[in-house]
């Protein structure tokens, strides 16, 4: 099956030779071709170039993209899409003055979601999560990482990971699974951290790897959650079971989580709302991708990741949604890109790089995703007719997506 897209006003994120990630000043460069064509063979990008160089081609399907932009679909490297119910009440409680921390301290927050999840059937969780996955696909996401972490019991964690596996089997979108058993301590282990960590290491991890239910291991390294020492212990165990770390750090406090992640060669360190100069320094010349989650900052009214300082230091940066019921009930990467420009002062070029190629890197899939490169997946966004790609962040809140292709197929 050959699909040909013609008259593309501008084809974005063109990379003749695939790059694993872009860092520092390179992030400002978004290579494009104006008045372009793109050829898809089955599920892969087979060719692209300027319209004047379009070779004779027999296409089974031709899409005329006059006035429209084409770009690789978003790579959302950090979500918690599989959860039960919602936390609307906590949202209103925060409006009325309680803090996220106060809500968590009285048994709300992650523990509230864990209670709901453990009371909900696997089928029901699948149905609720499926709707969210379909929504983000329509919003232009073509690859997504999904974490467990709302079970906090052996059964609950496995249930979430099985749902993620079932989503991956039933949908064309690329899905990477992360085991986040260390998201919080269940109430009964509040005074017995060792007991719960033993459960993670001795009961959850063996079962997860036996059934190939996860690619990565995550820990919420934060004051009141997992200490740096506990985080290291869990990363070490995960690595022994073949899971590379991708961890939550520096959301509210800078306590050394970044340095721990780097020590264990984490694929990414995520959140980074609170960054000290030593944290930025530590990330230099490492293979660890820093990931910012601006819609979490927006929703919780907490600081934004200091993108300008990080990029000036030569670091790469990826953008992701953090879609979850507590801190970010939104999986809209278009909003993430706009918010990164508006609030973090990233340029449109930097934000698009961060949400495509660097997002792919943060999931370990930059060989196959994140740029317009021959041989990569034909996961594409075709915009509505727009004056320039600046519209994507500029017209924040508007839906500028006309068509989404995943694995070369139009999704509706
Ligand atoms: O990434 N920070 C830790 N975990 C999630 C939110 C957890 C929740 O409130 O449910 C996050 O923001
Ligand atoms: Fe998260």
Count of individual domains? 2
> So how many helices?
15
The overall pLDDT average reads 98
- CATH topology of the largest domain: the name is TIM Barrel
> How many strands, what sense, and barrel or not for the largest sheet?
8 strands, mixed
The Rg value, from CA coordinates, equals 21 Å
Strand content: 15-25%
Low-confidence stretches: none
Q: Helical residue percent? A: 25-40%
Quick one: CATH class of the largest domain?
Answer: Alpha Beta
What is the CATH homology-level superfamily of the largest domain?
A: Metal-dependent hydrolases
**What is the level-2 CATH architecture name of the largest domain?**
Alpha-Beta Barrel
Structure explained in plain terms:
The chain folds into two domains: about 1-75 and about 370-410, Urease, subunit C, domain 1, CATH 2.30.40.10; about 75-360, Metal-dependent hydrolases (TIM Barrel, Alpha-Beta Barrel), CATH 3.20.20.140. The protein has about 400 residues and is an alpha/beta fold. It has helices spanning about 90-95, 100-105, 110-120, 120-140, 155-170, 195-210, 230-240, 255-265, 275-285, 295-300, 305-310, 335-345, 350-355, 355-360, 390-395, and strands at about 1-10, 30-40, 45-50, 60-65, 70, 75, 140-145, 175-180, 215-220, 245-250, 270, 290, 320, 380-385, 400-405, 410. The strands form two sheets. Strands 1, 2, 3, 4, 5, 14, 15 and 16 form an eight-stranded mixed sheet that branches. Strands 6-7-8-9-10-11-12-13 form an eight-stranded parallel sheet. N-(iminomethyl)-L-glutamic acid (NIG) binds near residues 109 and 324.
